[in-house]
Write a structure and sequence with these properties.
Rossmann fold; Beta-Lactamase; five-stranded parallel beta sheet; 26 helices; 22% strand
Length: 765
């Protein structure tokens, strides 16, 4: 009971029941503490702050927003009158009480004239609580009165504005149908001025086809004392007629308001919306509508089918229920920034269905704006992109195969040229005993055979490098000078050998010198430049040149590929980036440049085409330069890798091809190691049981037991045994970062003596 009593008798109560906030302007600390003690007796919840300067007073007036101000009269550099005037100027409703040691009648009068609510002498602090309570009570009364006046003014203003501005026709009638008030739209409908309708009977003014309906609705409203409404059609015009009772203070319906609205356009819109709704509900595309905060308001059946979520499970929730975790904060931040700015966002999400499975989803998300340009809704059109991605992969594969096919005949020409010295010199040695008897002749022939075989190996590796999958997302520092040089070598059969066979002379000038590194995927960038070079070769009908240059522009590295071919008009140059658009007829898929553009977009770069008929074409690609990174600290001398080989080891070599097995045995023995051989995985496991070995070297593709299985089982029985996989798939496995379980290092066939020595040293040194 005491607590309840204190709650209702608190002298400092506020309308919101929050603690009263009091700002005290007082330079004397003792007086401030005495005032505070007196005030807290009345209300322990009271919040008070003290200031001693005009600047501090104005700052706290804004930040603290006090309910009341108490101020000393005489203060350093100013007076209480200054505080009263400042409060009246910046916070007119906040009362100010002057609390001072001595106050003359003249000063007291000046304070009241300036706007102070009261004054209290410090010797009579017992008056402070009643003075504050009275001042606050007057403030609440003023605020309540002011609010009531504002409500009344707003109500009257709204009523007048609504009547004059409403687009519906409105007429106020008595029980006999006489006009008491009307607005401009209804007067225009009757082709009369509003003031000339007052006092007239409405039944003689309405068109004949509306009189009966309106009379019936008015009679029904008076009889039942509640609104009546009907939609009627007159020819092509639809009308919404409503009658609203106007009650007297006693609660009787003495008047009615008749509303007339033309809803023809509304009916047409509803029909269109119904048709649109049916199309959306029955369409294959997934639709989603949200409010500005992203709360889902509607999804169609296609959305339910695609995501596994029923409409009842999604409406009222956020689309983040589909979040897969595959996109970072920056991705979603850019997405929301785009649509909240009133722009459409188009892109691809990796989303998660209700069953947990992931799927790619193409999205077109548009904001809906009102007349003021404010976003009211977001509409998303979504489509499962799984099939599209598979189709794109097939088309990319086809494009790669077409590019590879362009080089095949030239590569065959080069490969056959390489085989000439291999076969010819070998036949020379085998058929000429005199040649074999001459060591220098034998050495010369073998050196030429070795060089030619190494060239053949390099051609195969270049082909593998060209066809290396380029869909990885890993990024690393890339030297574009090296990428361009490799692309030139990969396409050499097309721009040199094939061109010469067709009677053309195409010269490639590599003007790319030392350039800054970019952060990218080497395989994708190499594929891009290969496509650009092949396109440039195709554009040169007879003879011409291809010039490649690079230069830095701010934070971008720009590389241009310019040819002196036939060129294109502006329309063709614009359409070149469209998928499946080709100027080569049946010879082209139309995906080359669009693939290049896609690669650049994934790297945050851009592509531009400048061309004119008869003046060649220049394709400029721009890539962001890798930001500088701090130089790594030098490694301690003790951590330097060994520069010498390893001691003599006992090594087991496994290969099902007898010739390969014999060659590998001889090469490894040349390195000073003892070599045993096995022709199968099974034989190798049996040999490992009988003898201790320092290293196992195995092929991968073998009948009965593959190299993968052999390595795994060998590591199970001999955990410390290093395993090298020497295979013809080595380059492709390394490109794909594929290392089977149990294998320590993968190297490709054919391997030179140096390759073998480095590999053995790496795994055993």
């Amino acid at each position: 009971m005491p607590d309840h009593f204190e709650l209702h008798t608190n002298p400092f109560s506020t309308p919101s029941q929050e603690p009263c906030r009091l700002l005290i302007v007082e330079d004397n600390t003792t007086d401030y503490e005495l005032m505070l003690r007196e005030l807290h007796k009345a209300d322990p919840r009271l919040e008070a702050r003290r200031v001693i300067s005009e600047t501090g007073f104005l700052a706290e007036l804004r930040a603290f927003t006090p309910h009341l101000v108490c101020t000393d009269f005489r203060l350093p550099g100013f007076t209480g009158l200054d505080i009263v005037r400042l409060a009246h100027e910046h916070a007119p409703l906040v009362p100010v009480i002057v609390v001072t040691g001595t106050l003359s009648e003249e000063d007291a009068a000046d304070s009241i004239k300036a706007g102070a609510s009261d004054y209290v002498v410090k010797e009579r602090l017992f008056r402070l609580v009643p003075a504050i309570s009275g001042a606050l009570e007057k403030r609440w009364e003023k605020e309540a009165l002011r609010e009531a006046q504002l409500r009344l003014e707003r109500s009257e203003s709204r009523a007048l504005a609504l009547l004059n501005a409403i687009s519906d026709g409105v007429v106020l009638l008595d029980r006999d149908g006489f006009v008491l008030e009307t607005n401009q739209p209804y007067a225009e409908f009757l082709d009369r001025a509003p003031d000339r309708l007052l006092g007239k009977c409405i039944w003689g003014l309405l068109p004949a086809d509306q009189t009966e309906v309106c009379h019936s609705l008015v009679a029904q409203c008076f009889a039942e004392g509640k609104p009546a409404r009907r939609e009627v059609r007159h020819g092509k015009v639809w009308l919404d007629l409503r009658v609203q009772p106007v009650y007297s203070p006693e609660g009787r319906a003495e008047r009615v308001a008749l509303f007339r609205r033309d809803i023809t356009e509304h009916k047409r819109t509803l029909a269109e919306l119904e048709l649109l709704g049916m199309a959306i509900a029955q369409g294959d595309e997934s639709y989603l509508i949200t409010d500005p905060k992203g709360t889902i308001l509607y999804v169609n059946p296609a959305f339910e089918k695609m995501t596994g979520y029923a409409a009842s499970e999604t409406v009222g929730r956020n689309p983040r229920i589909l979040k897969s975790g595959k996109h970072g904060h920056d991705f979603y931040g850019a997405f929301w920034a785009t649509i909240r700015s009133g722009k459409t966002w188009q892109g691809r999400f990796i989303n998660r269905r209700k069953d947990g499975s992931l799927y790619p989803e193409d999205n077109l998300i548009s904001p809906v704006l009102d007349a003021a340009g404010t976003v009211t809704h977001f509409v998303g059109v979504k489509r499962d992109a799984t099939r599209q991605i598979e189709f794109e992969k097939q088309m990319v594969h086809q494009e790669r195969m077409q590019a590879l096919g362009k080089m095949v005949s030239g590569i065959a020409h080069d490969f056959n040229n390489i085989m000439v010295p291999i076969l010819g010199l070998a036949e020379e040695l085998l058929s000429s005993p005199d040649s074999i008897a001459q060591p220098e002749c034998v050495r010369s022939c073998l050196n030429q055979i070795f060089d030619s075989a190494r060239d053949a190996r390099d051609i195969v590796r270049r082909l593998r490098e060209f066809y290396r999958p380029g869909d990885e997302v890993e990024r690393e520092p890339v030297d574009l000078a090296d990428i361009v040089e490799r692309a030139i070598e990969l396409t050499r059969p097309a721009w040199q050998t094939q061109a010469q066979a067709q009677g053309r002379t195409v010269t490639v000038h590599n003007g790319v010198g030392r350039v800054p590194l970019v952060l990218g995927n080497a395989a994708q960038l190499r594929e891009m430049f290969v496509n650009l070079l092949l396109n440039a070769v195709d554009a040169i009908a007879e003879s011409g040149e291809i010039l490649i240059r690079a230069e830095s522009h701010g934070q971008q590295l720009r590389v241009t590929v310019r040819d002196t071919g036939c060129g294109m008009d502006p329309e063709l140059a614009t359409r070149c980036l469209e998928p499946f658009f080709s100027t080569k007829g049946e010879r082209g898929s139309g995906l080359g440049l669009s693939m290049c553009y896609g690669i650049l977009q994934r790297h945050g770069g851009d592509l531009r085409i400048d061309s004119a008929p008869g003046k060649g074409t220049t394709v400029a690609v721009a890539l962001p330069i890798r930001p500088p990174v701090p130089a790594p600290l030098p490694a301690p001398a003790a951590n330097k890798p060994k520069e010498t080989g390893v001691d003599s080891l006992r090594i087991l070599v496994v290969d099902d091809e007898p010739m390969s097995l014999k060659v590998m045995q001889k090469l490894i023995e040349r390195l000073g190691h003892k070599v045993d051989t096995a022709a199968s995985g099974k034989q190798a496991l049996e040999t490992l049981v009988k003898n201790p070995y320092h290293l196992l070297v195995t092929d991968r593709a073998m009948p009965g037991m593959s190299g993968d299985e052999l390595a795994f089982r060998a590591k199970e029985s001999h955990p410390g045994l290093p395993v090298i996989m020497l295979t013809g798939f080595g380059d492709l496995m390394n490109y794909a970062n594929e290392t089977p379980p149990g294998v320590d290092l993968v190297i490709g066939k054919p391997a030179s003596l140096r390759d073998l020595n480095e590999a053995i040293t790496r795994v055993t040194g």
